[in-house]
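Example for tutorial group B:
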C-alpha cells in the first residue's frame, strides 16, 4: 500500500470516526505562518500543509489592526522577508494597508493561498501516544466572527446562540504542528476596577477592533492608553476625515518617545520618489541596506539594553537627547508628565513623528488623571493622578474630579501578552496541559523559544523569550522558521518519527535566559511593563544579540533532543558514524605510514602521501566491509 504519511488525505472514508490528515499543520496566517508556508515550499519543495487562521483574511495583526494612522514603526526594508524583498515600498515607514498587501503578495508569489483556511479557530491540540500524531480540534466559524475578540464572540453566543458564531467542530490529525499564533491576539478588556461600562450609551471599542463606520464628526473622544497604537491614532482624530471635536488621552505613565528614523543622508521625500528605482536597478543594494540596519540595531542593543558600564553610559546620553526632543516639541505644560522616571528601553519605545507635534493641537488634551467612572454620556476623571508619583514632583496631587463629555471611548491599552498561545489548549504526551507545565516552572518558556519537553513534534514560531525590543520581529521569526525547517526536513524524509527536546536542556536554556535577563534594562530599568509578569518573570524578551540567536538557529544542538529514528533514519545514522570512524582510523593509519618512511627531501612528499592514501583506502575498505555486515545485522 502506498505510504501517504507525507500527503494530505482522508482516513476512514465515510466512517463516523474518519478524519483529515495533514503532514504539517500551521496555526496562524500572520507573518510567521506565512514565512513557514513559503519556506516549506521553497526549501523543501513541500506543499502538503495547511494553515488555519480564525480571522477572515490573511495577514495576522496587519489584517485586524485598521485604526487611523496604523503603520510600521520599523523601516520597511527591515520589516520584510529576506527571501522575498520588496523594492517598491512607497515610504520608509509604510502604512498598515501597504504592509498587508505585501504579505498577501508574498502568499500569491509562493503559491500558498490555497493552503490557507481562514474562519477556522484551532481550539485544542492533543498528542496521541499510540499513533504518535497530534489530534487537532477545529472550530469552523461564521465568516467574519473570527475577527472579533474572544470576549465579543462569547457575548454574541450568549445573545444569539451558538450558531451565530460556530458552524461546526472538526477533528483532524497532523504529524507536525507549528504554532505561529503570535502575541497580539486578544485585546485587553475594559478595566474591571472602573464602573459604568454598561451605562455608557456611546461607542466603546478597542483600537485593535476599530469600527470602520464610527462617526467622529464633532464628537468628544476619550482615548485610554499611550502605547504605540495610541501614538499613531490620537493625532489623526481631529483632522480630516474624522474631525473630532475634542480628544482627551488618558495616560498611566509616559513612554520614551524616539523621533522616527528617516532615511540617512537622503531624507523621506527623496526616498519615496527614488528608492524603488535604485533597489530595482542596483544589484545587492537592498541587501546591503538591510545589513546596515541590522548592524545598527545590534549596536543599539549593546549600547542601550545591557547592564554594562558602556550601556549605562549610553542610556544616559540617549535619555538626555530624548528629553531635549520632548522639550523642543511638546507644550511646556506636558513636560513633567511626559518625562519618564525609568531607563530608556525598559518598556517598548515609541517611534513616531506625529504624536508629540500633535499635542500642540488645542483640540487634544493629555492627562494622567485616572478614570474614576463612566456615565451614559461622560467620563469622570480624578481625584489624584497616575503620574508623576508624589516622590518625584513638588506639585500637590489634584483633589478635584472632572467630568468630561464623551461620545466615543477608544481603548488603546494593549493586548493580553503574558499567557502565550492562549486560548489554544495544548495537551502533551503525559496528558498535561502546556499552560500547567509553564505554571509549575515559574512562567511561559520554551527551548530556543521554540519547543517544550513532553510535546513532541510541536514547534512554536516566535514563542517565549524571542522578542528583541530593538530589532525586527520579521528577522526573529525567519530565524525560528529556518530552525524549525531543519527538524521538519528529517521527519518528512522518513528518517525521524519524533523530535522532543530534553527536559534538562529546556530547563537549562530557560535558567540561562532568566539569569541573563537580570543584566538587562528590561529587569533593571525600574519600570512596570508587559515584558514581565507580576512575579517578575520575563517571558517576552531575548537577552542576547540577534547575531547569537541567528547562529544558534543555523546550527541546532542535536544532543539537546530526544530523537526517535525510523529504521531508515537509524541506518543513515550508523553509516555516518561508521564513515566518521573510518575517516579517523584512515587518517591515523596514514600518519603511521609516513612515519615508517622518513622523508630525505621534499621530493619524497608526493610519494609518501600516495602511499598513505593507498594504505588508508585499504584499511577503510576492510572496515567498510565489516560495517556493512554490522548494518545488515
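The residue assignment follows.
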Amino acid at each position: 500500500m502506498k505510504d501517504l504519511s507525507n500527503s494530505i488525505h482522508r482516513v476512514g472514508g465515510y466512517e463516523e470516526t474518519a478524519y483529515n490528515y495533514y503532514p504539517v499543520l500551521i496555526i496562524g496566517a500572520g507573518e510567521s505562518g506565512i514565512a513557514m508556508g513559503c519556506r516549506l515550499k521553497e526549501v523543501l519543495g513541500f506543499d502538503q500543509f495547511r494553515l488555519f487562521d480564525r480571522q477572515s483574511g490573511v495577514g495576522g495583526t496587519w489584517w485586524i489592526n485598521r485604526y487611523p494612522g496604523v503603520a510600521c514603526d520599523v523601516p520597511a526594508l527591515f520589516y520584510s522577508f529576506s527571501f522575498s524583498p520588496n523594492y517598491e515600498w512607497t515610504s520608509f515607514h509604510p502604512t498598515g494597508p501597504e504592509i498587508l498587501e505585501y504579505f498577501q503578495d508574498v502568499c500569491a508569489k509562493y503559491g500558498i493561498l490555497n493552503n490557507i483556511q481562514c474562519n477556522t479557530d484551532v481550539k485544542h491540540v492533543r498528542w496521541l501516544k499510540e499513533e504518535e500524531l497530534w489530534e487537532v480540534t477545529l472550530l469552523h466559524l461564521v465568516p467574519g466572527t473570527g475577527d472579533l475578540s474572544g470576549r465579543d464572540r462569547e457575548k454574541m453566543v450568549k445573545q444569539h446562540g451558538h450558531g451565530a458564531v460556530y458552524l461546526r467542530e472538526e477533528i483532524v490529525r497532523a504529524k507536525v504542528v507549528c504554532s505561529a499564533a503570535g502575541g497580539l491576539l486578544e485585546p485587553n478588556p475594559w478595566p474591571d476596577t472602573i464602573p459604568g461600562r454598561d451605562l455608557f450609551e456611546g461607542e466603546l471599542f478597542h483600537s485593535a477592533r476599530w469600527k470602520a463606520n464610527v462617526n467622529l464628526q464633532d464628537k468628544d473622544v476619550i482615548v485610554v492608553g499611550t502605547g504605540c497604537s495610541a501614538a499613531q491614532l490620537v493625532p489623526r482624530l481631529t483632522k480630516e476625515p474624522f474631525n473630532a471635536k475634542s480628544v482627551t488621552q488618558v495616560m498611566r505613565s509616559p513612554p520614551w518617545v524616539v523621533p522616527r528614523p528617516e532615511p540617512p543622508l537622503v531624507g523621506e521625500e527623496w526616498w519615496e520618489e527614488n528608492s524603488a528605482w535604485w533597489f530595482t536597478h542596483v544589484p545587492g543594494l537592498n541587501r546591503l541596506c538591510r545589513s546596515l540596519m541590522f548592524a545598527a540595531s545590534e549596536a543599539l542593543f549593546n549600547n542601550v539594553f545591557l547592564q554594562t558600564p558602556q550601556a549605562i553610559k549610553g542610556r544616559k546620553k540617549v535619555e538626555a537627547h530624548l528629553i531635549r526632543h520632548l522639550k523642543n516639541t511638546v507644550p511646556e505644560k506636558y513636560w513633567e508628565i511626559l518625562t519618564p522616571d525609568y531607563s530608556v528601553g525598559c518598556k517598548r519605545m515609541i517611534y513616531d513623528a506625529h504624536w508629540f507635534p500633535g499635542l500642540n493641537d488645542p483640540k487634544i488634551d493629555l492627562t494622567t488623571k485616572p478614570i474614576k467612572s463612566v456615565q451614559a454620556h461622560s467620563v469622570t476623571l480624578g481625584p489624584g493622578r497616575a503620574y508623576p508619583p508624589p516622590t518625584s514632583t513638588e506639585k500637590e496631587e489634584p483633589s478635584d474630579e472632572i467630568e468630561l463629555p464623551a461620545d466615543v471611548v477608544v481603548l488603546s491599552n494593549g493586548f493580553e501578552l503574558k499567557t502565550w498561545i492562549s486560548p489554544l489548549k495544548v495537551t502533551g504526551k503525559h496528558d498535561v496541559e502546556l499552560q500547567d507545565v509553564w505554571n509549575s516552572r515559574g512562567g511561559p518558556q520554551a527551548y530556543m523559544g521554540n519547543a517544550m519537553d513532553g510535546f513532541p513534534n510541536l514547534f512554536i514560531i516566535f514563542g517565549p523569550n524571542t522578542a528583541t525590543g530593538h530589532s525586527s520581529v520579521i528577522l526573529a521569526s525567519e530565524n525560528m522558521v529556518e530552525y524549525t525547517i531543519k527538524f521538519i526536513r528529517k521527519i518528512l524524509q522518513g528518517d525521524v518519527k519524533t523530535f522532543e527536546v530534553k527536559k534538562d536542556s529546556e530547563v537549562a536554556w530557560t535558567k540561562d535566559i532568566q539569569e541573563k535577563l537580570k543584566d538587562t534594562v528590561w529587569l533593571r530599568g525600574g519600570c512596570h511593563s508587559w515584558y514581565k509578569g507580576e512575579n517578575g518573570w520575563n517571558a517576552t524578551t531575548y537577552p542576547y544579540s540577534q547575531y547569537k540567536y541567528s547562529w544558534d538557529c543555523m546550527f541546532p544542538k542535536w544532543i539537546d533532543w530526544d530523537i526517535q529514528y525510523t529504521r531508515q533514519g537509524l541506518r543513515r545514522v550508523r553509516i555516518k558514524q561508521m564513515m566518521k570512524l573510518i575517516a579517523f582510523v584512515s587518517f591515523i593509519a596514514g600518519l603511521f605510514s609516513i612515519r615508517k618512511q622518513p622523508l630525505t627531501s621534499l621530493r619524497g612528499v608526493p610519494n609518501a602521501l600516495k602511499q598513505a592514501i593507498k594504505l588508508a583506502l585499504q584499511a577503510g575498505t576492510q572496515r567498510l566491509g565489516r560495517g556493512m555486515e554490522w548494518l545488515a545485522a
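Residues 567-596 form the longest helix (30 residues). Compare this with the pattern of hydrophobic and polar residues in the output above.
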